[in-house]
Structure formats: C-alpha cells, structure tokens
C-alpha cells in the first residue's frame, strides 16, 4: 500500500491528467457541462501536483475548483448556451414575437392564424377575441397552439409569406 501511495505522490500529475482527459471525454458524450467542470477541477489538481503539493492538498484543490466551477461558471455558461441571438434561434423559439394574421376569429379557446406561411391553431391568453384578418403577435407556443395577442396599433403585420407582402394592403394582388 505504501508503494501505491508513493507512486501517487511521484506521478500524481499523470493520474490527474488521465482524469482530466477522461472527464473531458465523458463531457463530449453528455454535453451537460457537468463533467467539463469536474475536468477543470482535475486540471487544477494536476497543476497542484506539478508544483509539488501533497496528495491531500491535490484532492482539496480538485474538490474546491470543481465545486466553484459547478456553482459559479456552469449556470452562466448554460444560460448563454440556451439563449442565442434571435436570428440563431430555431423551431418554436423563433416564432415567439413573430407577426401573425388571424384567419378566423381567435378566442381564448379556438381560432387559427397564419405565422410565417404556416397555419396554426391559436387562442388568446386573456379571454379577448381577435376578428378574422386582425394582425397579431405570437406571445408563446403551447404544444401545437399559438397564443397570440392583437398587434399594437401601427404595427405592420405580414401574412408570413416569404415575399413579405402586407395582408392589409388593398393594392396587393395574390
């Protein structure tokens, strides 16, 4: 047992390096940023070993650095990863705030709107109703239903077609 301990003292940096690389490899499979934070803790412990710190201090450095990374850095990193610029959002997130046009009356329980060229079932969040042809804005998506509110006065809503023509312009022919 003394030989193993002496080997850990002599080559502790190598053990921490293997742990660092192993945790980084696991992170590539999970993409949760948890193992990356542990990996940075192992890197800190490896540096402590290189500078001659005793084994117990290396373990303490690993624990403290990993804990700080998980508690401080990970939430900030996840926040930045989850919310990208508006033009890089995808799927449902891209529809939030998008203009829509009511194709039929939209109430708090039923209706349809056209968003980005697609027809969606819709409802209003507050019991109000929107008449057919009324410009609206998407506030959120609940399953396959768009929750919409009337567009502010003066807002220029489009029908969602790729040509960007206005639906309230009587001079446009389709």
Order of helices and strands: HHHHEEEEE
Which structural category do the helix and sheet elements fall into? alpha+beta
Count the E strands.
Answer: 5
Percent in helix: 40-55%
Largest sheet, order of strands side by side?
Answer: 1-2-3-5-4
Our Rg estimate from Cα atoms comes to 28 Å
**What count of helical segments does DSSP give?**
4
Q: Runs with pLDDT <50, length 5+?
A: 159-174
- Could you give a short account of the major beta sheet? 5 strands, mixed, barrel
| Outline type | rod-shaped
Strand content: 15-25%
Distance between the termini: 85 Å
Estimate the mean pLDDT confidence.
83
Please provide a written account of the structure.
The chain has a 5-stranded mixed beta barrel with strand order 1-2-3-5-4. A hairpin with a 2-residue loop joins strand 4 and strand 5. It is rod-shaped, with a radius of gyration of 28 Å. It is an alpha+beta fold and 174 residues long. Helix 2 packs antiparallel against helix 3. The protein is built from 4 helices and 5 strands; from the N terminus they run H-H-H-H-E-E-E-E-E. It is 45% helix and 16% strand.
Give the key terms.
single chain, 174 residues, alpha+beta, 5-stranded mixed beta barrel, rod-shaped
List the helices and strands and how they pair.
Layout: H1 2-30, H2 34-50, H3 55-82, H4 92-95, E1 99-102, E2 112-115, E3 118-123, E4 135-142, E5 145-150
Parallel strand pairs: 3-5
Antiparallel strand pairs: 1-2, 1-4, 2-3, 4-5
Helix pairs in contact: 1-2, 2-3
